[in-house]
Amino acid sequence: MTTTKIILPESEIPTHWYNVVADMPNPPEPPLGPDGNPIGPEALAPIFPMNIIEQEMSQERWIPIPNEVRRVYQQWRPSPLYRARRLEEMLGTPAKIYYKNEGVSPAGSHKPNSAVPQVYYNKVAGINRLSTETGAGQWGSALAMAGQMFGVEVTVYMVKVSYQQKPYRRSMMETWGAKVLASPTDQTDAGRKVLAQDPDSPGSLGIAISEAVEAAATQEDTKYSLGSVLNHVLLHQTIIGLETKKQLEMVGDYPDMIFAPCGGGCNFAGMAFPFIADKASGKNINLVAVEPTSCPTLTKGHYAYDFGDTVGLTPLMKMYTLGHDFIPPSIHAGGLRYHGDSPLISQLYHEGILEARAVPNVATFEAGVTFARAEGIIPAPETCHAIRATIDEALKCKETKEPKTLLFNLSGHGHFDMMAYDKYFRGELEDFAYPEEAIAQSIANLPKF
Ligand SMILES: *Cc1c(COP(=O)(O)O)cnc(C)c1O
Q: Where residue 333 falls among pLDDT bands split at 50, 70, 90?
């Protein structure tokens, strides 16, 4: 009998996170200040505590996971690795398909893997208040939960379109004690500036980041917390890939290809980075980030220094970007509506170590529904992007009769996204064409120095 769920005992929760910086062929391009010179740790001190800044800049290969964090991880980790037997049968593919289910966390996605340590490090540094942004509500939920567990107050700037479309995500954050505001708000300079130009702005992650950063920088007792993009967030997420490697060893298997949805990049990095060292030592493995055609950062963006937020408050980071003032179409995969991408992923992609594919909106829901009908689990719209790419590959294997081993990260469940599924079933979803003109315009506004 083929095992369906590959389960590790709690004692096997990894003791260290993996820092890919130690194994990169070239050192990471440094973040720059407004004058175009590399910034030091002190430039980040208004918004992050020093213990997190040290992690952000660390070159150590292995970084110990504090016991207090592992204790909280035990609430849902290790997460199960599944063999998608029923999906394989439904597709009639000779490929083997595995998926890691990060939807089993209390918040419903991989996001708590970083929310928990971020809150912990702030608490240890004496910080009792955090501000953050959330797109689809996944990161806000995760930070709200972690804040509750360590007694840290959390204020969430939630992208307005999600705030309206996902009232239950908001209730969830409130259940865990967070304060939730619809961004753009009239409570920050950044928010007021956007509202002056467009009173009906649906908001964007870039705008919400501006608001949350401003709140942290201007309030003495508040620090900021980011759910993706930065090195330390990707570091925390490597627990996904590290567990997966142990689980695959238990069944004597190894993937030929790995897929994960890619917004800011943290769940993709979390799954893929621990396999990069193997790739460097000669393993033949394809690591594929999957993004929407409506926000095609890696596949159509420019590799350049840009701001992480819309207004330009963050340091400049070298990354694939569509331009910091690009506002992507409101597709429902809110977690993938970000103009930039993690600098580490961008550099590794630029150097040909990672790959990327873009998939259109309607086809991703079709894949999500196929998956739900085979495996039972209803995936988040973001996750559906990775499922689309995995199914496409499995169908290709059917044609070529290649028994490849495919692995994808099920980054979250879709229980709060049923409105998007509903639109799909009613035929109301559209494939937004690649917004070429809007991107060209934003690219023209890239910072010059
Ligand atoms: C946030 C989110 C994503 C995208 O963010 P990354 O930083 O690219 O991981 C993907 N899937 C789910 C379920 C999310 O909540």
A: low
Distances 61 to 120, 171, 231, 237, 353 between C-alpha atoms, Å: 21, 39, 13, 14, 18
Residue range 67-108+232-444 in CATH 3.30.1330.10: no
Please state the separation of Cα 271 from the chain's center in Å.
11
Q: Which amino acid is at 435?
A: P
Question: Which ligand 1 atom lies nearest to the CA of residue 412?
Answer: 13
8-state DSSP, 99: E
- CB of 255 within 6 A of ligand 1: the answer is no
Token match 């996001």: residue?
111
How many angstroms separate the CA atoms of 301 and 340, rounded?
A: 8
Residue 90 buriedness (CB in 10 A; 0-12 / 13-18 / 19+):
middle
- What's the pTM value of the predicted model, to 2 decimals? 0.96
Q: For residue range 160-190, what is the model confidence (pLDDT) as tens digits?
A: 988 998 899 999 999 999 999 999 999 999 9
CA distances from 193 to 197, 198, 199, 301, 413 (A): 7, 9, 10, 26, 35
For residue 140, give every residue at least 6 positions away whose Cβ sits within 8 Å of its Cβ, in sequence order, or none.
132, 133, 134, 154, 156, 158, 169, 173, 178, 180
Tens-digit pLDDT profile for residues 261-275: 999 999 999 999 999
Give the rounded distance of the alpha carbon of 69 from its chain centre: 20
CA of 110 to the centre of ligand 1 (A): 7
Any atom of ligand 1 within 6 Å of the Cβ of 267: yes
Q: Closest residue (by CA) to atom 10 of ligand 1?
A: 382
Give Dmax over CA atoms of the chain in angstroms: 63
Question: Which is the closest atom of ligand 1 to the Cα of 102?
Answer: 13
In angstroms, the first-to-last Cα distance of the chain is 62
Verify whether ligand 1 is closer than 6 Å to residue 231 (CB atom): no
Among 373, 379, 378, residue whose Cα is nearest residue 409 = 379
